[in-house]
Amino acid sequence: MNLEVPEAVITAIEKNGSVPIAIDWSAPRDGVVLERNAIEGMRAQPGDVLFRVADTSVVWAMVDVAERDLGVIAVGQPVMLKARSFSNREFTGRIAVVYPQVNRETRTARVRIELTNADLALLPDMYVDAEINAGNAAPVLALPDSSVLDTGTRQTVLVDKGDGRFEPRQIKIGRRGDGFVEIRDGINEGEAIVTSANFLIDAESNLKAALKGFAEGSAAQTAAPSDGATGTGERQ
């Protein structure tokens, strides 16, 4: 018993009164052999890892969640995952742990998701894409993702004022999902917003402003007093 000999072998020794030369050592659980260090005839020391067996009928998915999204996730939320090996199949699980640390380089936090793997389709070290259902039933004002000009520190939309005029409007955004972004402040329901080609409009507007600034600067330089000095340009 101190050597952790299986109970069935101990019972057989007591019954037969003899110690067998070889003992069948059963795995403590069902599963898949992920690592095998034991070979026939080798000597094993206490604490040596001979086999590594894992039950993959329930697996963990470790996903990285952006820092800006941590406020809308919690333990117990449902998650839908897609493995790159099975593009047409979805796996469902739930958040089990949100680790209390943010990666300095990637500005993400690690989240552990538990999901069933009854047919053993998911294998260790596979890549998966996860979608966390963080929404609720309360209606919100939302726009397509393509509507928002996001610089990282400022979010802007272009409001259609009619007659070919557009007004840039700074907004505050919230949650994202299914190709939409929540609008918390800056526009009202019913306003017409540019949803495509907004980068072209923004670029054209910036170009016109730059050309206007150059023209005004050139005019100011031409009209500046010259302290009575006159001259003609010489070609160098």
State the secondary-structure class. Answer: alpha+beta
Fill in the CATH topology of the domain at 58-132: Elongation Factor Tu (Ef-tu), domain 3
Order of helices and strands: HEEEEEEEEEEEEH
- Per DSSP E runs of 2 or more residues, the count of β-strands stands at 12
Runs in which pLDDT lies below 50 for 5 or more consecutive residues are 226-236
CATH superfamily of the domain at 58-132: Efflux pump adaptor protein, beta barrel domain
Fraction in helix: 10-25%
Shape: rod-shaped
- The total count of helices amounts to 2
Q: Major β-sheet, in short? A: 5 strands, antiparallel
What does this structure look like?
A hairpin with a 5-residue loop joins strand 5 (91-102) and strand 6 (108-116). Residues 226-236 have low confidence and may be disordered. The protein has helices spanning 7-16, 198-223; strands at 32-36, 51-54, 58-66, 78-83, 91-102, 108-116, 128-132, 142-144, 149-150, 155-162, 165-177, 180-185. It has a 5-stranded antiparallel beta sheet, with no helix packed on it. A 5-stranded antiparallel beta sheet has the order 8-12-11-10-9. It has a two-stranded antiparallel ribbon with strand order 1-2. The longest helix is centred in the C-terminal third of the chain and has 26 residues, at 198-223. With 236 residues, the protein is an alpha+beta fold.
